[in-house]
């Protein structure tokens, strides 16, 4: 018996669909093989993107552990600042030019003579390393004591001001993907977070000398790249131990020193140090002028 044209057409469609499905399966297998060849971290991030895991892409943010002071906006002639920088951490980070360029881009005039500037911004990198995911580095920052060079009673508290979603709780679990899940992929799926902690003393010039009590910080600290603290602690898989003593001294000056402490963080699945640093530097550039009066 001859088949009708309708039956013949339906049969041809089925054959085409079968071919399409085979091609799709082959394409998926090929992609999976290529991803596996590129490493477990790539596998995890690719699968994380598919399952909307927030750690699949690099994220960054800031935590004002000690927020900037609320100062009156300067007039045009007073938008002058002297910026100095030092690194007293174990890292090789140098933010000097980044700080200056960021301020210049926001309309500030950078002076080389500190005695002529309306404001003096003295920044110190205290720590760069791995911290607990979702901590934003705030836990490590709180263990660092008072801000050396800042006036007592101002810039020495720990009022937290979260500028991003760094306070969101929870840690991502492993991503299920059938036979692709193994020990390596499971480890690569875990978020890792890095933080840069910066102390800033922002000095504002007054019309006449003022007297204030200033923090002079001295202490000993033994900290590894995985944390910082004034007691034994675990942070990012490492330990830290140290102690800090704080003394004060009375000063008279035309510049009043406000203390600021900032933590800039970045996280992602299995994020490496070399991946975190560019994200942290970009975020730091964006927030530099929030330290200066707007």
UniProtKB/TrEMBL annotation:
One of its GO terms (cellular component) is cell outer membrane. It is a lipid-anchor. Keywords: Lipoprotein, Membrane, Palmitate, Signal. Residues 221-245 are annotated as: Disordered. Residues 221-234 have a biased composition (Low complexity). It is found in: Cell outer membrane. It comes from the Bacteria. This is Conjugal transfer protein TraT. It comes from Marinobacter fuscus.
């Amino acid at each position: 018996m001859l088949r009708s044209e309708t039956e013949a057409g339906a049969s041809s469609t089925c054959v085409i669909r079968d071919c399409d499905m085979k091609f799709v399966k082959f394409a998926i297998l090929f992609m999976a093989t290529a991803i596996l060849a590129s490493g477990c971290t790539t596998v995890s991030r690719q699968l994380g993107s598919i399952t909307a895991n927030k750690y699949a892409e690099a994220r960054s943010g800031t935590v004002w552990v000690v927020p900037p002071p609320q100062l009156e906006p300067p007039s045009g002639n007073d938008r002058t600042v002297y910026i100095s920088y030092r690194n007293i951490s174990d890292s090789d980070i140098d933010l000097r030019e980044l700080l200056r360029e960021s301020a210049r881009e926001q309309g500030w005039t950078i002076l080389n003579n500190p005695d002529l500037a309306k404001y003096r911004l003295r920044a110190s990198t205290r720590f760069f390393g791995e911290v607990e995911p979702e901590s934003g580095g705030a836990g490590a920052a709180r263990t660092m004591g008072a801000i050396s060079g800042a006036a007592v009673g101002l810039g020495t508290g720990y009022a937290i001001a979260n500028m991003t979603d760094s306070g969101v709780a929870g840690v991502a679990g492993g991503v299920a993907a059938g036979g692709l899940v193994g020990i390596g992929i499971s480890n690569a799926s875990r978020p890792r977070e890095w933080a840069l902690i910066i102390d800033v003393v922002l000095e504002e010039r007054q019309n006449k000398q003022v007297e204030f009590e200033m923090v002079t910080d001295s202490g000993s600290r033994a900290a590894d790249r995985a944390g910082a603290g004034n007691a034994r602690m675990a942070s990012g898989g490492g330990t830290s131990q140290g102690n800090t003593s704080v003394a004060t001294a009375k000063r008279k000056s035309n510049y009043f020193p406000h203390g600021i402490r900032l933590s800039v963080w970045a996280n992602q699945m299995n994020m490496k140090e070399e991946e975190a640093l560019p994200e942290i530097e970009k975020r730091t550039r964006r927030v530099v002028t929030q330290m200066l009066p707007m």
